[in-house]
Amino acid sequence: MLFVDESNNVPALAHTREDIEDYCDAYYSVRTYFAYYNEIIHPIPEADLAPGSTLENIQPPPLKRLQGRPRITGRREAGEPGPKKRSYSVRCSNCREIGHNAKSCQRAPVAKKVSI
User: Which domain of life is it from (predicted)?
Assistant: First the structure.
C-alpha cells in the first residue's frame, strides 16, 4: 500500500489499468513509513532542562489597554457582592394579577382552531 496524492496522473493510470506502485518511489511506501517511525520518541525528563534557569523568573507579558469603550462595571472577586437588582412587579394584562405576564397566565382564554 502506498500513500499517493490523487493528482491528474492517478486517473490516467487507472484508465490504462497500470499499477500505481510502478511509478512511485519506495520512499512513499507504508513499509518505509513504519521503518522510519517504529522507534519510540521518549519525552524529555523534567530535571534540569537548562542549567541555571528557573520557572520562578518568568513574568507575564505587560498589560496593554484594550481598544474600544471600557466596561462599566469591573469583574468582581470571590465573595464580593454582586450588583443590586432592580425590583419591579409584573402585572398580567389578562387577569390583572401581579406575579406573571399574559403569556404565562393560567386563566388566559384558549384560542379556537380555525379550519381552512
Answer: Eukaryota
Its pTM surpasses 0.70: no
Query: What is d(CA 53, CA 34) in angstroms, rounded to the nearest whole number?
Result: 38
User: Rounded to whole angstroms, what are the CA distances from 65 to 62, 69, 75?
Assistant: 10, 11, 16
Rounded to whole angstroms, the Cα distance separating 38 from 77 reads 52
For 6-58, the pLDDT digits (tens) are: 566 777 777 788 877 777 788 888 888 888 888 877 777 665 556 666 666 77
Domains of the chain: which residue ranges?
Answer: 1-39
Sign of CA dihedral 4, 8, 14, 17: negative
Look at residue 15 and give its three-state secondary structure: helix
DSSP-assigned states of every residue in 17-31: T--GGGGS-GGGBHH
d(Cα 94, Cα 108) in Å, to the nearest integer?
6
Enumerate the β-bridge partners of residue 98. 91
